[in-house]
Design a protein that fits this description.
By secondary structure, this protein is of the alpha/beta class. The protein is built from 9 helices and 15 strands. The two termini are 24 Å apart.
Length: 388
């Protein structure tokens, strides 16, 4: 899969942009603050409906404009397609696929697939568990776009159940029929949370199992060989203790009904605490992707170099998983080489050089290893000048 054209209108620093792209490696260089990352962000948004830099769409629209439009012409194994997104902060975004309006934005997911390496990736190792849950869910959607709906359903139920818990806690004095009605309502929401949560949880567990060997191999490759300490990853689930749900000993990921039952039991066990605190204490939103180096947790114990190697390994593993039996996703490397020592630069470059399309940004062109040769564009004040 590769992009043949990217067009932007009023996106970030670009009033208007039309850029033709080719397969292989392409580098965009220029001083910081000139618009390089904005290109990567736009392509990532077209693939995932989200930004790796901000949580809302408002900052993506150029100052003074009312909306932004992103368009990408994509060529893949199934032919060519045109993906279009109109960003309307405060209102519903509009999407079109091959010029046909789509009922929901998520209906375009899968038309373009990307793997993005960025300085923010260090948070995958050093940040809070939410960063790692987001990583899993975004990769899950990239592998199977239907999980976008599963994730949205779970988040909707979670919000509504949390609101009910807060309301019920505030009305803890209820007695008789009023208390019975509140309990029955909570039972209903427990069932919905368990049903949607079990589906999301099963997908995550299967994903971690598939990703684990790729992460181990990529960490060894980026770090420089088997002499270094190995990495490990596991999925820590809030609805059960050891062993890890989905492991061969339990196998719940292959039995959604059993997983739903376990979650219902866990919810029943913490209801009193939930009512006291007004929060939902079990479910995929409380889970953790545990990463370790050697025998120690990566968060808090890994060195800066080890943390970077593990963050890169997560992205490289994502790339390896997405290309298994399918076409390559587009690789986006946003100013990553400036963060790495020479050895890690060269090893990363060697691992991604054979990607069908690799798009790189760099403030200093010399930071990009020679093996990643290809057209080079200059970016200055939102203007992209010709390739060299």
């Amino acid at each position: 899969m590769h992009l043949t054209r990217l067009a932007l209108t009023d996106f970030r620093s670009y009033p208007e942009l039309s850029l033709e792209l080719s397969t292989g490696v392409t580098t965009f260089s220029g001083p910081n603050g000139e618009g390089k990352t904005n290109l990567v962000e736009a392509i990532g948004y077209l693939a995932s409906l989200g930004s790796h830099r901000v949580a809302t769409d408002g900052p993506l629209v150029r100052h003074g404009a009312q909306r932004a439009v992103l368009r990408a012409a994509v060529t893949g194994a199934q032919g060519s397609s045109l993906v279009e997104i109109e960003l309307n902060p405060g209102r519903a975004n509009r999407v079109r696929l091959n010029r046909a309006p789509m009922p929901r934005p998520r209906d375009i997911l899968g038309a373009l697939r990307t793997v993005l390496f960025a300085p923010e990736d260090l948070a995958l190792v050093k940040g809070d568990p939410g960063e790692r849950r987001r990583f899993l869910d975004e990769l899950l959607v990239a592998t199977a776009p239907r999980y976008s709906g599963v994730r949205a359903d779970y988040e909707r139920v979670l919000r509504q159940r949390t609101a009910l818990l807060k309301s019920a806690g505030a009305k803890g004095h209820l007695r008789g029929p009023a208390r019975a009605a509140m309990t029955a309502t909570l039972d209903t929401w427990d069932g919905q949370l368990a049903r949607t949560g079990a589906s999301l949880l099963a997908g995550r567990i299967r994903l971690v199992a598939a990703l684990r060997p790729h992460v181990a191999a990529a960490y060894e490759a980026v770090s420089g060989g088997p002499a270094v300490q190995s990495s490990a990853m596991s999925y820590r689930c809030s609805i059960a203790d050891e062993p890890e749900p989905g492991s061969p000993e339990v196998g719940l990921a292959d039995d959604p009904g059993a997983l739903e039952a376990v979650m219902l039991k866990a919810l029943a066990g913490v209801r009193a605490s939930e009512l006291d605190r007004g929060v939902c204490l079990v479910g995929p939103h409380r889970d953790e992707l545990a990463l370790s180096i050697g025998e120690l947790p990566a968060r808090g114990y890994a060195s800066h170099g080890e943390s970077w190697s593990l963050a890169l390994a997560l992205r490289l593993a994502s790339f390896a998983l997405l290309r298994e039996g399918r076409e390559d996703p587009v690789l986006l490397l946003d100013d990553v080489f400036a963060e790495l020592d020479t050895g890690r630069r060269d090893r990363l470059a060697g691992l991604v050089a054979d990607g069908e399309q690799v798009l790189i940004t760099a403030a200093v062109p010399a930071d990009v290893p020679a093996v990643l040769a290809g057209p080079r564009f200059n970016v200055s004040a939102g203007v992209i000048s010709g390739a060299s």
